[in-house]
From TrEMBL:
<dbReference type="InterPro" id="IPR015882">
    <property type="entry name" value="HEX_bac_N"/>
</dbReference>
<feature type="domain" description="Glycoside hydrolase family 20 catalytic">
    <location>
        <begin position="162"/>
        <end position="403"/>
    </location>
</feature>
<dbReference type="InterPro" id="IPR025705">
    <property type="entry name" value="Beta_hexosaminidase_sua/sub"/>
</dbReference>
<dbReference type="InterPro" id="IPR015883">
    <property type="entry name" value="Glyco_hydro_20_cat"/>
</dbReference>
<protein>
    <submittedName>
        <fullName>Family 20 glycosylhydrolase</fullName>
    </submittedName>
</protein>
<feature type="signal peptide">
    <location>
        <begin position="1"/>
        <end position="23"/>
    </location>
</feature>
<dbReference type="Pfam" id="PF13385">
    <property type="entry name" value="Laminin_G_3"/>
</dbReference>
<dbReference type="Pfam" id="PF02838">
    <property type="entry name" value="Glyco_hydro_20b"/>
</dbReference>
<dbReference type="InterPro" id="IPR013320">
    <property type="entry name" value="ConA-like_dom_sf"/>
</dbReference>
<keyword id="KW-0378">Hydrolase</keyword>
<keyword id="KW-0732">Signal</keyword>
<comment type="similarity">
    <text>Belongs to the glycosyl hydrolase 20 family.</text>
</comment>
<dbReference type="InterPro" id="IPR017853">
    <property type="entry name" value="GH"/>
</dbReference>
<dbReference type="InterPro" id="IPR029018">
    <property type="entry name" value="Hex-like_dom2"/>
</dbReference>
<feature type="domain" description="Beta-hexosaminidase bacterial type N-terminal">
    <location>
        <begin position="30"/>
        <end position="158"/>
    </location>
</feature>
<dbReference type="Pfam" id="PF00728">
    <property type="entry name" value="Glyco_hydro_20"/>
</dbReference>
<keyword id="KW-0326">Glycosidase</keyword>
Length: 710
């Protein structure tokens, strides 16, 4: 971090006197996230349109930045403006001037001066990185204009406070396709974040055994995950995509703990004295295999940092002091060995904190960067000469779907500081060895975790909060004021945050089916629709145990908030588990039986890609309600799903609420994955992309009156 005094020194090259920047104290500050450090309002606006021309000295990087600007502007405007590059200066031009000054710091490389006048815009920077960030500021100003082309006049001088402004995504436990990673990169670049850490291997904490290693390995082909991996060419392309947007990708290959995927192909590296998924650091074969793995992947990533994990290395059966000391020494020697081994390949090694909690640990090399998820000894680590990244778990961990951790955005914005690691662990302001901080998404639940959209929603506010605090200028006095600023900047170029099953009116039902053949979505098995005996104008879906109806909607499920309502007549009096609605991420059961307690009832669960519903031996994300649908009798059922909540209504009355977040599964009615479908008559199916209030839910029941005449 740099001090305010140093900040002023660094920006003097922009030829702006600080006193002039504050001459008009009543001006409205530009709404940019993260907030700019210095600004002065001008008169009028610059209009960017098809006649706007760029001028800059020939440079591949600047050409890329301009090309990305055009793509992002087109995304914001939904048009194809032909922004040109010209060699002559004229009105309606954007002039880019890169002014290198010899040896500059990372902070100086990311600084910029932006002068917006009605006839032209001038960008001055010491490095291409500063140009890119100036362009981000321009795009944010454009996004807030009504016509998406008017830029208010300002003079801005800006520089970040911390060189490391990071975000970590756990792709080891849950695979994110390249398209999703690109969207996270675009989110980060929008807010001037610059370090993306990919946690590339791990094992899930809940449910059945699950472990994955996400990069294609040519040295150990059997190590490559079968259910989703990145080819080495895909990684190279992603690295370039990120670099073009000011972001460095930090790879993390976690060992010797969290290494179940490695043990799956090399069980000889296991030691029964250690917890599951941990490599035996006292076995020389462990060192040999990890060297081969790092030999393959260290050269793949141009990042100056390479993260080797090393967190949570723990014992299971070893109980004697001698055993523990031997493993502690072996563990720290492992860290030092790979610091030198990977450092010899030109990298700065990063590890997680907590390595020194063992009895009689051996000191580790002082040039290792400590990723401080446990911050109780931050001052000691600084004293020992380490550089630190603030990653405190209680403040900066998001675990989608779990009831532990979670980011308090209000606390982060109003009270948290990157140099505060907890009680008695506040580092001095401007501590040079504090690189910055990092927000984290851990997918502990594995593949059954949240959908891509749900995960993005979890960090939608935390990411800009972190960006503003790390850039160093907290502009809004309160979190509520900050939220108001984010509203006009939520439309991030190249990022699709729109739910596919969303009604523009956000009030009418997305699905509203009375099961007349002309009223059903493009479903298969329409022959299952039959007239209801005694009611010639009414039709029902007659589902058998091996039947299903594929709905063919725009998406397979609806993320919260949602409401699902239907009338059902249960034709089966047994307590067998049967499926009523299903999708890759969720299942709703007309009857769900717990194998341990033998409890049965209406149920809902997260799903592991159709393989098995969550809860087979693990009830972390499976819910059996204290209600059931009686046999041979019509029942009106409504379920609502909100943020960390799910509520069941029977015949218009609330019966159960749980603090768990589920999706509304809509790929099939009945099961198409090998489970038994519910044997039912189904009618009046309605789905809403909001949570209906109790009066509306009661009305749904009352409107189903014809089914309850019997």
């Amino acid at each position: 971090m740099i001090s305010k005094k140093k900040t002023i020194i660094y920006i003097t090259f922009f030829f702006l006197m600080q006193s002039a920047l504050h001459a008009q104290v009543n001006n409205i500050a530009p709404n940019v996230i993260p907030a700019v450090h210095e600004w002065q309002a001008g008169s009028g606006s610059f209009i960017i349109n098809a006649s706007t021309a760029f001028k800059f000295k020939p440079s591949v990087l600047t050409q890329k930045t301009v090309a990305i600007f055009r793509e992002d502007l087109n995304a914001l405007q939904s048009t194809k403006h032909a922004i040109r590059v010209k060699s002559d200066v004229r009105k309606n031009s954007i002039i880019i001037k890169i002014m290198p000054k010899g040896q500059v710091t990372q902070l100086q490389k990311e600084s910029y001066n932006l002068e917006i006048k009605p006839e032209q815009i001038t960008i001055k920077a010491m490095d291409e990185a500063g140009v890119f960030y100036a362009i981000r500021t321009l795009l944010q100003l454009i996004e807030q204009s009504a016509d998406k082309q008017t830029i208010p006049c300002y003079t801005i001088s800006d520089i970040p406070a911390y060189p490391f402004r990071g975000f970590m995504l756990d792709v080891g436990r849950k695979f994110f396709p390249i398209s999703q990673l690109k969207e996270y990169i675009c989110r980060m670049s929008w807010y001037k974040m610059n370090q993306l850490q990919l946690h590339l291997n791990d094992q899930a904490f809940h449910g059945e055994h699950y472990a994955a290693f996400r990069i294609e390995s040519k040295t150990y082909p059997q190590l490559t995950a079968k259910d989703g991996f990145y080819s080495q060419q895909e990684i190279k392309d992603l690295i370039q995509y990120a670099a073009d947007r000011g972001i460095n990708i930090i790879p993390e290959i976690d060992a010797p703990a969290h290494a179940m995927s490695i043990l799956d192909i090399a069980p000889e590296l296991k030691n029964d004295d250690l917890q599951d998924g941990q490599l035996d650091v006292l076995n020389p074969k462990t060192t040999y295999m990890m060297e081969k793995i790092y030999d393959e992947f260290v050269p793949l990533f141009p990042s100056p940092y390479f993260h080797i994990g090393t967190d949570e290395y723990r014992f299971k059966k070893a109980s004697t002091t001698e055993d523990r000391k031997a493993f502690a020494a072996g563990f720290c020697n492992y860290i030092n060995h790979f610091n030198k081994y990977i450092g010899g390949k030109g990298k700065k090694v990063m590890i997680w904190s907590g390595y020194n909690q063992m009895i009689g640990f051996t000191p580790i090399d002082s040039n290792i960067v400590i990723d401080m998820w446990l911050g109780k000894d931050a001052k000691e680590q600084i004293k020992a000469g380490h550089q630190l990244v603030q990653s405190t778990d209680e403040w900066l961990y998001v675990v989608p779907g779990a009831n532990y951790y979670g980011v308090d955005n209000k606390f982060l914005y109003e009270k948290w500081a990157p140099n505060d690691f907890g009680p008695d662990q506040q580092l001095n302001t401007g501590e040079s060895n504090l690189l910055g901080a990092k927000l984290h998404v851990w997918n502990d639940l594995g593949p059954m975790g949240f959908t891509y959209h749900e995960t993005a929603e979890e960090i939608a506010i935390a990411l800009p909060v972190m960006a503003e605090k790390l850039w160093g200028n907290k502009m809004s006095p309160t979190f509520d004021d900050f939220i108001k600023r984010t509203v006009s900047l939520k439309n991030i170029p190249q990022v699709n945050d729109t739910r596919l099953l969303e009604n523009p009116k956000n009030s009418d039902a997305i699905v509203d089916v009375f099961f007349k053949k002309s009223n059903l979505p493009d479903a298969v098995n329409k022959q299952l629709i039959k007239p209801l005996n005694g009611y010639e104008s009414m039709h029902v879906l007659a589902l058998g145990k091996h039947d299903f109806v594929k709905l063919n909607l725009k998406a397979d499920e609806l993320e919260q908030p949602w409401t699902l309502s239907f009338c059902v007549k249960n034709m089966d009096s047994s307590d067998t588990t049967t499926v009523l609605f299903e999708s890759p991420y969720g299942t709703i059961f007309l009857n769900l039986k717990d194998k341990k307690s033998q409890k049965t009832g209406i149920g809902i669960a997260r799903t592991v890609g159709y393989k098995e519903y969550a809860g087979d031996g693990e009830d972390f994300y499976c819910q059996i309600f204290n209600s059931s649908a009686p046999a041979n009798k019509w029942t009106q059922i409504t379920l609502t799903g909100g943020h960390n909540s799910c509520t069941l209504y029977i015949n218009g009355n609330e019966t159960d609420t749980v603090e768990k977040q589920f999706v509304c599964p809509l790929k099939t009615i009945g099961s198409n994955s090998g489970h038994l479908s519910a044997s039912v008559l189904l009618a009046n199916l309605k789905v809403f992309s909001r949570i209906l209030n109790k009066e509306e839910i009661r009305a749904l029941f009352l409107n189903s009156a014809p089914f309850f005449k019997d």
